[in-house]
Task: structure prediction
Amino acid sequence: MNIEKTWELLNDIYFVRMGGTEEELKAARIIQDYLSELGLESRIEDFEVEMDTIEHAELKVTKPYEKTYECTGYKGALNTPEEGLTKKLVYFEQDNAVIGKMAKDAILLCNGYITLRSFPKIAKHQPAGFITYNGNIDTAREDVDLGEREFRSVLNKYGQMPGVNIKIHDAMEMLELGAEEVQIKLKGSLAKGISRNVVCDIPGKSDEVVICTAHYDSSSFSKGAYDNGTGAVCLYGMAQYFAKHQPERTIRLVWCGSEERGLLGSHAYIADHPEELDKIVMNVNIDMIGSTMGKRIAVCTSEMGLVNYIDYDAKIKGFPIEVSQGVYSSDSTPFADKNIPAVSFARITPPGGGEIHSRHDVIEHLSKRYLDEDIRYIVQFTEQMATAYVCPAKKEMPENMRKELDNDRGKSEVK
Ligand SMILES: [Zn+2]
Result:
């Protein structure tokens, strides 16, 4: 394996590449070029995604002081009347009886993102609209990017309302100054677009398949070096190796698009290839490796046998990694949901050791040495699974994992 070439690919896809955009397509084509240099054929598989746009978003405090705050509108959320929606402001600190009573017909300032898990708890109080915020109070206001957010159509069944997103500094100011009434104006339109997966097969001698996934899209303002340029180039490292070492089982490499928008690429892959699921014996997913600061983890959505196996194997080889059973919110989840044993590898940064989903996810926080070590470990594990006489992991989900997958479905649909 050639880490220099792998590192070069990481640099070549180092630009913001959000799901469904031209930049995502550009990254897909670069990956394909690198594969053809290895003599490997690949294909792009399109899938439809929502590409709503916001024409106008405005947030104004109207009482007891007047001030307009910088905001972005929630794509796909309900539009306000042209003159705006003016309501009392309630800080929805949590879903409880007291705040619930205040929340009716108010515009709620909410903690955290709007997800399939959080939104029902907000919507049941019948508010008129919502405000979310992002950033960190210790980061200078100008260093916080105002995140673009989506109100995915799957939320409509709980209630439709307008929503905007602001910076945490402004949310704090509104609370400190005692904002009582706010006006939201939102005008957006719905549209469809195309996102895509890149698929490359390295044919084995049997018709069984080990499917290896990593998303290559990033979120707004993020060039996604760590999340998940590193996983994307790990698949390329695998391609380098398996192109020269024919596996027993087919290795299918899938660079998933639009993961950041709710695992859309892996969901689309499964929806488009139902006939393949029988043949897939395992999913190896990579989402965030190679950081300078960090600790390695492997999260197995499977029976405990696989957890123990990786744990023992890593100990025997002297590779420090914490192995656990659980559901990792990434492209492994849709495969596990189909009872395919799945493992996600990551090197998780400690607090302060590197951010994701922002402009701070940069290549300078990554280490060529750790990336190389991570890829080598993942390749040898994958080779074991691809050459095993029989694939040892059972193709069934234990009850605790089934339960977690069912609970997590909301989280994965609206990340
Ligand atoms: Zn990721």
